[in-house]
Write a structure and sequence with these properties.
The chain contains 22 helices and 11 strands. The protein is of the alpha/beta class and 444 residues long. It starts with a helix and ends with a helix.
């Protein structure tokens, strides 16, 4: 094993290498004010606001091209719902206490692509299309962006190719939007990707290139082939600031939803968010946006499969993108296909080093247990990957490490009674009905 000496010195890493569930608390976590100045240099409030305005400009195009977005006036946004029956069932099934209220953010049901990747992936495709059209003066910022639905615009964009490496959901968002707006699109998909996702992409006009290797290989090959074509643009999930910005926009929208529900977030009403994590881009962007708004009153925890906790390893070891789960004796294989990334994002592991509260790892078998419990209690069905998030509220007050974190952050019993817990459902809407039934019948 490559890091055998490191495992001997670090009991946490040893436990991770044994594929055991762990509640990891980030010892490098700092109060937001101590990180704000540096973070602003990397991604500023103005950058996030600019991204939000760009999505608003494209609303007219999205309403015309995707009628399902008319109810949200062309914005790609999801509901947040309280799930009290699931909360009670989790407490009973896992002998735990979830102090406060439990909610689910339904990015599993986002329009167009049916996953959290619809935020960042679609945003990056739209920004690239805008950049090309503005450069050639085919459109002006003051024009109605409904023009992007015109055949003339699509003919112009058809000269260009968009490529991406993916385990599934990012490929769906990039592929569906790129094809709809007129780009040629190639999606490089790893062995972890589900067949139905490949089939869906091909039905929408995307070229799918399959690999027998893992996510890292699909990304590397996609990047290499894109670099050979001057008219090709590679969406780099490992490094893209544009993807990150698309995800970060979610935070201000969530605040508006919480305000509408009369849910306060302050020192006495903490917000605790649990996000399933693959390479790290989507949960990193969402968390970063939330920290900018709620600062120390929001606590963000990532959740990863026991066989593929790449972001945890990247931050804990400070190897960042050079951390690979296989170097720590893990397989990188998981039923949570959207989380099957052996190495993490270089960008996200660095920017979240002082902002992330912690990370939970979860066994694959529990993904399906949570999925069944959610369906039976709330009549909601999401992907197994999405269900990973539920281990967070289950174990927050069961594990010594996270109990100590709560103590340090003054999350006492009175404050936790007023807590808002949000599990961020990251995918599920696009799953075919026969696959949904298979998920319900899967026992590991």
């Amino acid at each position: 094993m490559k890091y055998e000496n490191l495992l001997k010195e670090n009991p946490t890493l040893k436990k991770i290498s044994e594929a055991k569930e762990i509640a990891w608390v980030n010892e490098r976590y700092l109060p937001f004010d101590m990180t704000n100045a540096v973070c602003q240099l990397i991604v500023s409030d103005e950058d996030i606001d600019s991204a939000a305005k760009r999505l608003e400009r494209f609303a007219a195009f999205l309403k015309k091209e995707f009628p399902e977005t008319q109810s949200t006036n062309g914005l790609i946004e999801s509901d947040i719902i309280e799930i009290p029956n699931m909360k009670s069932a989790l407490e009973k099934e896992y002998n735990c206490s979830i102090t406060g209220k439990l909610f689910m953010k339904k990015d599993s049901h986002l329009a167009i692509a049916g996953s959290i990747k619809a935020r960042g992936g679609i945003y990056e495709v739209l920004k690239h299309a805008e950049d090309l059209a503005l450069k050639e003066s085919i459109i002006l910022e003051n024009d109605s962006y409904e023009k992007f639905a015109d055949s003339k615009m699509k003919d112009f964009l058809s000269q260009y190719t968009v490529q991406v490496g993916s385990t599934g959901n990012l490929g769906l968002s990039i592929g569906i939007m790129s094809a709809a707006i007129g780009f040629k699109v190639k999606v490089h998909m790893s062995a972890d990707a589900k067949q139905w996702k490949k089939d869906l992409l091909r039905s929408r006009g995307a070229e799918v290139i399959e690999y027998t290797e893992d996510y890292s290989k699909a990304v590397a090959e996609g990047r290499r082939l894109s670099d050979l074509d001057e008219k090709s643009y590679f969406v780099d999930d490992e490094k893209s600031v544009n993807l990150f910005l698309g995800y970060a926009v979610a935070a201000k929208r969530l605040k508006a939803q919480l305000d509408e529900m009369n849910i306060s977030v302050d020192k006495d009403h903490p917000l605790i968010v649990y996000l399933p994590t693959g390479v790290g881009g989507a949960p990193g962007g969402v968390s970063y946006g939330l920290k900018r708004i709620f600062k120390d009153n929001v606590h963000c925890f990532f959740v990863e499969p026991v066989q593929c906790p790449s972001v945890l390893l990247g931050i804990e070891t400070q190897l960042f993108e050079n951390a690979n789960v296989k170097d720590f004796g893990l397989t990188g294989k998981t039923e949570a296909d959207g989380l099957a990334c052996a190495s993490p994002s270089s960008f996200v592991t660095r920017i979240m080093t002082n902002l992330l509260s912690g990370d939970f790892t979860v066994e694959d078998r529990k993904l399906f247990d949570y999925l069944r419990l959610l369906y039976s209690t709330e009549n909601e069905q999401i992907e197994p990957s999405s269900c990973a998030a539920f281990i967070g509220p289950v174990n927050l007050l069961k594990e010594d490490s996270t109990l100590e974190y709560c103590k340090k952050q003054n999350l006492n019993e009175d404050r936790l009674k007023n807590a808002t817990h949000i599990v961020w459902a990251t995918g599920g809407k696009m799953v075919p009905e026969d696959i949904r039934k298979q998920y319900l019948d899967t026992y590991l």
